[in-house]
Amino acid sequence: MPTWIQLVFLACGVCFILALKGLSGPKTARNGNLLGAGAAVVACAMPFFWTDLHLQHVPLILIAIAIGTVGGVYGARTVQMTQMPQMVALFNGVGGGAASLVALLELQQVVDAGGHDSWFNLAATAFTIAVGAVSFAGSVVTFAKLQDLMTSRPVVFPGLPILFGAALIGSLGLSVMLVDDPRIWVGITLGLLGLLVGVLLVLPVGGADVPIVISLLNAFTGLTVAAGGYVLSNVLLLVAGTLVGSSGTFLTLLMARAMGRSVPNILFGALKGGSTLGGGEASDRPVRSITPEDGAIMLAYADRVIIVPGYGLAVAQAQHTLRELVDVLGERGIEIDYAIHPVAGRMPGHMNVLLAEAQVPYEQLREMDQINGDFKDTDVVLVVGANDVVNPAAKTSPGAPIYGMPILNADEARQIIFMKRSMRPGFAGIENELLFEEKTSLLFGDAKDTMSKLLNAVKAL
Amino acid sequence: MTMDTGVVWLTIFVLSVFVGIEVISKVSSTLHTPLMSGANAIHGIILLGAIIVTGTTDNSLAVAVGLVAIVLAAVNMVGGFVVTDRMLQMFTRKKPAKSDESKVA
């Protein structure tokens, strides 16, 4: 490899480090991302200027890049902000799949050359094939769960742990075989087994935990790319992949901590039969249902109001109407804030993105730690399309899947209005006791529709 | 004295692990989603590997598989950066949005 290309790769590696650094601060995030994008484009252009490589099939390669680019841009531009998490999962999955295929091709070249390679190189190849496939299949399942193509509840069937264990041991055995005697069919079987491991890994994960698994799979893909870089003797791939692998693992732990969950518990909790709650037996208990006009009176004559927005708000596209309502209430002199749970929406920070899209002023968004002490002096809490983040079961019911997750103390307020589409439980699939309390009122209906009725009723007062 | 090549690779790997953790250690929970998405785009750099592997083989089946890998990797890389930028746009639009409002008011 010419020295100048190696130096370009070094510069790109530095840019990736600076990109990650930039992405972790609000002011620098956008430039950080652009820097990373620029470095990636420059790096991928290098093979075309690297004459000793004698790159063949250039037109076909360019067409393939064009197809991928068009597909990626189209997906990224048209996706709804609410569906962002599954889009990231999908992008992550195809990256893992690509890494797996690259390693298979590299294996083919080793086999063609007579099958002699260092054992460490072959082990790295096996790792890339298997973990890339895990990441691909796992991401597809997370996509299906978030997109409601399948149930978001944990899927467990008898024998799943045994099958999972067998698939893992099988993968390990095939990897040893591959290192001992590289053959392409072993590599392909390893990839297929990796797909099975990926599916079995994600099936038992409950919907509320899926984002953490996406982050974990993201770290997996990073490590896969790093191992691929070693196999291809490409330092940039090694550095970039390792950066993503380590920062992704760390980010996964941060996210899990924000939700009060542990990663092993997320992955294997359902297998231990920990989450047995659910069932509809409580849903025909009496609740207090009110009209938008009643709700408007409660809000308009309060002194202190806190809004708890949730994913349902974004799905109904009611965030713009909500902002109008908050503006009108603010003009009446009511002190009003949004309480943002760290995992409101589908992922940490997701709700901030959704509300920023509706141009809600940043100062009105208060994080959980800042606002949790305010609830006891609050007249009305308006919960819009949220459920699990105010569910007291997280504090009181040790068997619940969300037990231990820090929640917003909405239950301490004097009155609570829930805007809900139905009595269906939240994403975690458990009943919310708060709905049945005396000080709780329910406003049933589509969030957008109900919100406009509420807004008009407040304006009419 | 020359270093063993394997050790050089291991050194780069270990140092990268620490750098990766260090650079994001102060991230606020608001930015978790964009950060994850941005990191996701960075591992799309496997596109570079896919291009090299595809361009250096003569086996037509291998070329076909390689082209599939290139499409997938390009989706990961390009889509990842574009979607991250879209998310971050939402954050930075705050300022002009506010000044617009004050003008209207």
Description of the structure:
The complex is a heterodimer of chains A (about 450) and B (about 100). Chain A is an alpha/beta fold. In chain A, about 60% of the residues lie in helices and about 5% in strands. Chain A contains 17 helices and six strands. Chain A has helices at about 5-25, 30-50, 60-80, 85-110, 120-145, 160-180, 185-200, 210-230, 235-260, 265-270, 290-300, 310-315, 320-330, 350-355, 370, 395, 445-460, and strands spanning about 305-310, 335-340, 365, 380-385, 415-420, 440-445. Chain A has a six-stranded parallel β-sheet with strand order 3-2-1-4-5-6. In chain A, α13 packs parallel to α17. Chain A is elongated, with a radius of gyration of 25 Å. The N and C termini of chain A lie far apart (about 75 Å). Mean pLDDT of chain A is about 90; it is low at about 275-280. By secondary structure, chain B is mostly helical. Chain B has five helices and no strands. Chain B has helices at about 5-25, 30-40, 45-55, 60-90, 95-105. In chain B, α2 (about 30-40) packs antiparallel against α4 and α3 packs antiparallel against α4 (about 60-90). Classes of the chains: A alpha/beta (about 450), B mainly alpha (about 100). Chains A and B meet through α1, α2, α3, α4 and α8 of A and α1, α2, α3, α4 and α5 of B.
